[in-house]
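The instructor's notes for this session suggest beginning with a concrete chain rather than abstract definitions. Hand out the sequence below and ask the class to guess, before any prediction is shown, which regions might be ordered.
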Amino acid sequence: MPSKSRQTGQAGRHGSSASYRAVLTAPGAMPLVIWSLLSRLAFAMTNLSLLLYVSAASGSYAFAGGMTAVSLIGTAAGAIGQGRLIDRFGPSRPLLALTAAYGPLSLALIAMVPAQHSPNLLLACTVLAQSATQPLLAVASRAMWPRLVPADSQRQTAYSYETISTETCYLIAPAIAATLAAALWPGTPLTLACGVITTTAIGFALTPAAYQHRGGDGTVALSSRHPHAVLRRRGMPILLVAALGFGTGVGFVAVGIPAAATALGATAAAGLLLATWSVSSVLGGLTYNRRPWPSEPSLRLPMLMAAFGLLLCPVFIGGFYGLTAAMILTGLTLAPQLTAQNALLDTLVPPHQVSEAFGWITTAIALGNAIGQAASGALIEHSGHETAFCIAVFSVLGSAAAVTAGRRSLRPHHKLPRTTTT
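After discussion, reveal the predicted structure:
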């Protein structure tokens, strides 16, 4: 059997040979793709829907913001536990068990918000409903691709699709949530999102491909005795640094763009700039999949990170035009960075731990995002948006330097198991 490094190298050299159509129409893939896509769209609506609903009911954006922060961080942390369950039992049983708890809890949360229950009770229900029990089809979907497509350019294309579809959902979902909340009832988008998440989780779990995936091999018992075994895998700490650096940079920019637009007298353009950022990310992901560069995967990620940091520099020149240029240019690097992280994860972690590892990556990105947003807000308040962007550039470049220094550990070091096609 050819080594993982040789197959990864072939994927890097022939990234353009696999079309999205070939991947999405692989045997057993289409039902999973449809359910996970609908779930992604609903998940992308959740945080804004919760913010709109709670703020309308309580009259406090501060409390609503606290609720969404708890939801965001808790959901990311829950990805680790769900990843471990999926690694051990396959996706069907964990998703069905989580959904059985998530449905009633989400309904309870929706009912409690207008009743003005105590803040602590609402926060506790949010943690349980939106964090501890919310079925994350992004984790389950990521776990299925090694069973559906071979570890060549098709696997690279599958991970590219995962990233691009997520970006597209986050581009569309806020508009849907805001429109439904304004036109109907403030709780409409949250109710719809929770219903879709519940339905799609059940649908995904009952697809033949997901149901036939019964979990890991005999080495799972070993991993269950060592809760942090994934973190001990060579290369995982460096990949987590990359994920944390990526999330921090995104957090800085997400807060810095509205502040910069306001300072330039173009407050209304902030939403358009952020939308441009997402569109650019999708285009960057599509282009990157056709010809990944450089060919060495362990070098690809730090170079993309460095490009992200350097391409932020136009914000310091040219006023609004410089801001727009930075959004377009940095957006082109976002989806490729996530795709590169996914591809490297496959080479660093054996199949029976890959879902948990993906959960750790998701958590690192969310934690970095929270750190970036908090730090950016504080810097803007005291020193202006220029200082926040300056720190963002140094933060991203510092993370890129750390990943470059440790990139030897990102080189493949285990054999690829036989791919199972369902």
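Then share the key points. The CA atoms of residues 243 and 365 lie 5 Å apart. Residues 153-183 form the longest helix (31 residues).
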